[in-house]
Amino acid sequence: MSQISVDSVIPQSGTTITIGGSGDTVTLGSGASSSGFGSAAYAANASASTGAVNVDASHNLQFDSGFGSTATAYGCRAWVYFNGLGTVAINGSGGVSSITDSAVGQYLVNFSQTMPDTNFAIFGHISTYPIGGNYGEAWENNSVARTTTSVPIRIALQAGSNYDHEDIMVGVFR
Q1: Are strands 106-111 and 121-126 parallel, antiparallel or unpaired?
Q2: Pairing outcome for strands 96-103 and 106-111
Q3: What's the CA dihedral at 105, 110, 114, 117 to 10 degrees?
Q4: Please, are residues 52 and 38 in contact by the beta-carbon 8 Å criterion?
Q5: Ramachandran region of residue 97, left (φ > 0), alpha (ψ -120 to 50) or beta?
Q6: Domain coordinates of the chain in residue numbers?
Q7: C-alpha 13: how far from chain center
Q8: What's the Cα-to-Cα distance from 20 to each of 26, 32, 46, 162, rounded to whole Å?
Q9: What is the pLDDT of residues 27-85, one digit of tens each?
Q10: What are phi and psi of 41, to 5 degrees?
Q11: 150: closest CA among 130, 122, 127, 129?
């Protein structure tokens, strides 16, 4: 068996070094370590099977966590639970930098990270108890344009009037 001993290997051109050929196995010794290589659970272009975690060629995270098949996961890019009564206060959040109180029952959810585009879905919810015999709802305020840095939210009674609410929850998915 032949042996090559070197301190480093630098590609002649580009950034790829090929060791072995198609179908060959490269084995590291017991004291050796590798860096810059993905593991089988995080391998681009791998074919995911049931129960596997995979990142496909388009960098989509895929997994099967009891759903019956491996599929692309769509994560919550931002969420917030805040008090919209009086001085607005965030109770908990992820991916949200702040809330702007725009008017009665109108808020702007400001993102910590810019979204890649405005093609995201939002879900809003408030604690559901009657206010003067009406229930309230949370939804996107379509009279104000959404952007890649924020989304407008409106809280209104079934009767149509806006109102400030203390328990507002919003999730943004992309």
Answers
A1: unpaired
A2: antiparallel
A3: 0
A4: no
A5: alpha
A6: 76-173
A7: 36
A8: 7, 18, 19, 67
A9: 766 766 665 554 444 444 445 454 467 787 788 888 876 767 778 888 899 999 999 99
A10: -80, -10
A11: 122
- Closest alpha carbon to 78 in 90, 96, 60, 61: 96
Could you give the CA distance from residue 19 to residue 116 in angstroms, rounded to a whole number? 37
Among 132, 140, 136, 127, CA closest to 160: 136
Position of tokens 């992309």? Answer: 174
Beta strand spans in the chain (E): 53-55, 61-63, 71-72, 76-83, 89-94, 96-103, 106-111, 121-126, 136-140, 150-157, 168-173
Residue-wise pLDDT for 98-113, tens only, equals: 999 999 999 999 999 9
Whole-number pLDDT of residue 41: 44
Checking if the pLDDT of 1 tops 80, the result is no
Structure tokens at 174: 């992309």
3-state class of 42 per DSSP? helix
Calculate the alpha carbon distances from 27 to 15, 21, 38, 129 in Å.
Answer: 21, 13, 15, 63
Q: Enter the pTM of the model.
A: 0.65
